[in-house]
Design a protein that fits this description.
It contains 28 helices and 25 strands. The chain is an alpha/beta fold. The longest helix has 24 residues, at 79-102.
């Protein structure tokens, strides 16, 4: 039998005494810490020692715990090392609670000692001696970790770290964007999990050495399996500040295995504070200048939150799974993620949602506009590359189809849901009346039986019924099922808001503004008011108005980007045509804004007619702004559309000028350089770019290619149409060649 004693203390002012902690903090804080330690230690013991014949956890006093474990010699083999692991597990489990209560990470000390006894005689003295020895070990510098220390050194020196890779998926297209490398210790070891590995390394001051081994294992495995996309490598903030840290070492590893810095994203965990931001910034700037990406992990937990993000200025923000878990049913979490998305757009970075484990979470995050996703529902960490799960592929494909609907309110009604107020079907009318009287803000309750909705009661209807003659006498003692609305409008959680609104407005007049019941596989999951639905639809209409160009009424930049995203997600080979008027500024200055608007409207009409007459059904025309337009066409129709539009513009545009300018063939005005000169009459330039969309294409890549082709088209006199002769954007073979 072994006795294990643990002592809790805080690293605040380097003090390890729980008594001092009591003097520094309020009783409820220290009490909360002691309870958290007891709770998490009990859970760790249950996970590790529950198979032993004897296993007992007792509180000696607040902040001091005793574990007694016993069995035969075989069962007790390695128990000393297991007891040392309990300390690390307990500290890891209660870290969040400790930071919340005290602002500091917990410091758990432990020691183990055998209970040597020849039977019941003298057992109490043996227990006391074992406890005293365990406490002495806990106070000592070694802290009972020598067996784990030996194994840890073997892991480092023999390179027994293996890397597994979890996919990070582009939620817009369903394609794999990157892989995160996750370290694992030897199978079956106490140090197999990354939490145990890194907690122990931090405790003994060897984080840098461990990360060096992990980083090489990750890069070696990633390169050997020819994985596509980028590699996310976790980096402890203190590693970048380690005196032994050499910035060029990672580059030498990449050169050794044939990778480039642009293939790697350094993922900095936010769970650890950064004290020296000046040195930290210099190190990060070195990596950025070399081409590495920078990500901040665990956003939503940890020390500095948005302050840390503002200091680090990452390329990618990874949301902690605590924000993602249950986001589909938590409007507060959805609002927080929407705020972070707005923040990310403002500072020019992207969001990764970690810990996606259900279909509902993935669907909700896609609707919110989160850029990337990661989690077991998409794909588990594997030694070998594996395709995304079938269930995830179905959800991602459905998201691509929804993108085709543009700015329609296709969000599920569950996004608007509130917690339902319910009464059991066996309740009496009097009990419901009492409920309304004590909950004055409530206007409706759902009647449920075993979680399934059977009816709805509105407070005004109930008051009207009970205020009638003999109403109180007739109904107060009867079951509520006798007076409820037995056919309320109930919709499944994934019903689009537009569809739910149409159904609500189609009800009888007296039910028009009753709330809707939301179900999930027949069970009540929420309730939503008609007012909230109408507000959501109004917001969508406002967004649609924002997205349309006010002059031409054509889709604007928001809709253009959505259409490009839809085609990319569906891998629809597309020709993008950038259309621009030549000498429009001079024309607008000479003839005025009114005639300038006429020229823009003429261009829109000409392009629209050409698309209607010769384009495919899903071809698209958008108005970027000013005299710039975008056409998205299938390859088989683009030449005919552009040719027809140029002919029509050449025939109609002279009517925009006065007879004198038409006869001269030019106008006099001031150019962009400020000099007065002669300028040709309005002409149109078109540049055609082919997009394969076999691999993701960024808007920056598309914009750069379009600008180059437009510039070349405008260098040709008169109405012109030029085609980019380079390889199509988003071509898988071209991307692979670029990687090589």
């Amino acid at each position: 039998m072994w006795a294990w004693a643990g002592r809790f203390s805080s690293c605040f002012s380097k003090c390890h005494d729980f008594t001092l902690l009591r003097r520094l903090f309020r009783p409820e804080v220290t009490g909360g810490m002691a309870e958290a330690m007891e709770r998490e230690l009990s859970r760790a013991v249950e996970a590790r020692l529950s198979e032993l014949p004897v296993c007992l956890v007792e509180r000696l006093e607040p902040g001091r715990m005793l574990v007694l474990a016993g069995g035969n010699a075989g069962a007790l083999e390695g128990l000393e090392q297991a007891c040392a692991a309990l300390r690390l597990e307990t500290r890891a489990r209660m870290r969040t609670e400790a930071v919340r209560l005290t602002g500091q990470e917990p410091d758990i000390r432990s020691g183990a000692a055998p209970v040597i006894s020849q039977g019941l005689a003298g057992l109490d003295q043996s227990l006391a001696a074992a406890l005293a020895e365990a406490c002495r070990v806990a106070r000592s510098e070694g802290n009972g970790r020598s067996p784990m220390l030996r194994e840890f050194r073997e892991i480092l020196e023999l390179g027994r770290i293996r890397a597994v890779y979890q996919p990070i998926v582009t939620l817009r297209s369903g394609q794999i964007y990157a892989f995160e490398a996750l370290a694992r210790g030897p199978v079956g070891s106490v140090l197999e999990t990354p939490a145990m590995l890194f907690d122990f390394a931090e405790e003994i001051g060897t984080i840098f050495a461990l990360e060096k081994v992990c980083r090489e294992a990750a890069i070696r495995g990633f390169a050997s399996r020819n994985r596509c996309g980028r590699l996310f490598c976790n980096v402890h903030p203190r590693t970048l500040l380690d005196p032994a840290f050499t910035p060029g070492e990672t580059r030498r590893l990449l050169d050794k295995y044939g990778l480039e810095p642009r293939n790697v994203v350094l993922e900095i965990t936010e769970r650890h504070s950064v004290k020296d931001f000046n040195l930290f910034h210099r190190t990060l700037d070195h990596y950025r200048n070399a081409g590495y990406g920078v990500a901040v992990d665990d956003v939503g937990t940890g020390y500095s939150g948005l302050t840390t993000i503002a200091e680090i200025r990452p390329d990618i923000i990874k949301l902690d799974m605590s924000l993602v878990r249950g986001v589909d049913a938590n409007p507060v979490k959805r609002s927080m993620i929407e705020t972070l998305l707005t923040f990310a757009d403002k500072v020019g970075c992207r969001i990764v949602a970690e810990g996606i484990e259900t279909e509902a979470e993935l669907t909700c995050l896609m609707r919110l506009g989160v850029h990337y996703g990661q989690g077991f529902f998409l794909g588990r960490p594997e030694d070998q590359p594996a395709p995304l799960s079938e269930a995830a592929l179905v959800v991602l494909a459905a998201g691509a189809e929804r993108a085709a609907d543009g700015l329609k309110c296709a969000s599920p009604i569950h996004d608007l849901a509130e917690r339902p107020e319910v009464v059991d079907a066996a309740a009496t009318v009097g009990e419901v009346k009492q409920y309304f009287d004590t909950h004055e803000a409530s206007h409706a309750v759902a009647v449920v039986r075993e979680g399934r909705p059977e009816g709805l009661i509105m407070s005004q209807h109930l008051d009207k019924l009970l205020s009638s003659q003999y109403g109180l006498s007739l109904f107060m003692r009867r079951e509520v099922t006798h007076i409820m609305d037995t056919s309320p409008l109930a919709v499944e959680w994934d019903t689009p808001v537009e569809v739910a609104a149409q159904a609500a407005m189609a009800r009888e007049r007296d039910k028009l503004y009753d709330p809707l019941l939301i179900t999930c596989r027949g069970r009540l999951s929420g309730m939503v008011s008609v007012q909230k639905i109408l507000d959501a639809l109004a917001c969508v209409q406002v967004e649609m108005a924002k997205g349309a160009n006010p002059l031409t009424g054509l889709p604007g930049n928001v809709a253009i980007e959505r259409e490009i995203a839809r085609r990319e997600a569906g891998r629809i080979r597309t020709c993008l045509v950038y259309v621009d008027l030549d000498n429009f500024k001079v024309f607008n200055d000479v003839y005025g804004f009114k005639d300038g608007d006429k020229a823009i409207l003429l261009t829109a009409r000409v392009l629209g007619d050409a698309l209607s007459g010769h384009g495919c059904p899903d071809d698209f025309l958008g108005h970027v702004g000013g005299d710039d337009f975008v056409l998205l066409c299938r390859g088989e129709s683009v030449d005919q559309v552009c040719g027809t539009a140029i002919e029509a513009f050449a025939a109609a545009s002279p009517a925009l000028f006065c007879a004198e300018d038409q006869a001269r063939g030019y106008i006099e005005g001031q150019g962009r350089d400020g000099r007065v000169g002669r300028f040709d009459l309005l002409t149109v330039s078109m540049g055609i770019i082919e997009c394969a969309f076999a691999v993701p294409v960024t808007m920056d890549e598309l914009g750069a290619r379009a600008a180059a082709v437009k510039k070349f088209a405008k260098s040709t006199a008169g109405n012109s149409c030029v085609r980019d002769r380079r390889a199509p954007l988003g071509l898988a073979e071209a991307a692979a060649a670029g990687e090589r």
